[in-house]
Amino acid sequence: MTQKIFWQDPYQTELNTAVAAVRGDQVYLQSTIFFAFSGGQESDAGTLGGYPVLAAARDGLDIAYTLPPGHSLQAGDAVELRIDWERRYRLMRLHFAAEMILQLVYRHCPGIERIGAHISAERARIDFARDDSIAVLFPALEQEAGALVTAGKPIETAFSDEPSQRRYWEVQGFARMGCGGTHPRSTAEIGPLTLKRKRLGKGKERIEITLSAPAGILI
Questions:
Q1: What domains can you pick out in the chain, each with its CATH number?
Q2: Edge-to-edge strands of the sheet including 175-178?
Q3: C-alpha angle 25-54-92 in degrees, rounded to nearest 5
Q4: What Rg value do the Cα atoms of the chain yield, rounded?
Q5: Which helix (H) or strand (E) covers residue 95, if one does?
Q6: How confident is the model at residue 1 (pLDDT cuts 50, 70, 90)?
Q7: Is pLDDT of 18 > 60?
Q8: Contact 119, 183 (CB under 8 A)
Q9: What are the b/e assignments for 149-179, b being 16+ CB within 10 Å?
């Protein structure tokens, strides 16, 4: 089972590790800092042993990294893993921004159904089953999210079930939510956010979330 260091330290950008197994173009590692697509959050970008990682996918409790055909890596090889930090940091911030908005929507609309979500490095989106415009909530959502950012509350993460690798985040006094993604240390790192409404069809509403550039990237 791959040791997932991105949970212990989501700010680590380089790692010396070893190849655990090779199956054609797919490589498995003993430990990793490279997040694979999960829970709507896109995979990191970066290199493994000098090769670009073309795809990262969960394989049970392991992660399979797809490298270009013809790579020379073999089981037991020592390798260096590097991630694109700018992309990772935007994914972390947008991921938690989406989760803040989701929890606030749940507060304002008890029983509302989330029907989709996706977090890229450019924007996040959350889709809901709703008949009328969700934009009526935006003034309250933006104000309350802004207050959380200003408060700079710690974002705590841990296992809820370690053998199954189920995790959660918690902000004291706000919410707790099951999630295996990567998160910033504090709500202050999210910075200002902007919400946009999109109608997907009858009974389907989308909130798109974009962020301003942070004052500084923290490592």
A1: 3-83 (2.40.30.130), 87-211 (3.30.980.10)
A2: 156-161, 166-171, 175-178
A3: 135
A4: 19
A5: helix 85-108
A6: confident
A7: yes
A8: no
A9: beeebebebeeeeeeebebebebeebbeeeb
Q: In percent, how much of the chain has pLDDT > 70?
A: 97
pLDDT in tens, 86-99: 999 999 999 999 99
Describe the chain by its helix, strand, coil percentages, rounded to 5. 25, 40, 35
Mean pLDDT of the region 40-58: 97
Which alpha helices (DSSP H) does 109-173 contain, by range?
138-151
Q: What is the DSSP string of 15-84?
A: EEEEEEEEETTEEEESEE-----BTTBPPP-EEETTEEP-EEEEETTEEEEE--TT----TT-EEEEEE-
Q: Quick check: helix, strand or coil at residue 217?
A: coil
Backbone phi, psi, residue 200, to 5°: -95, -15
* Distance, CA of 74 to CA of 71 (rounded, Å): 9
CA 115 to chain CA centroid, nearest Å: 18
The amino acid occupying position 167 is: R
Contact 124, 98 (CB under 8 A): yes
With 0-12 CB in 10 A as exposed, 13-18 as middle and 19+ as buried, what is 215? Answer: exposed
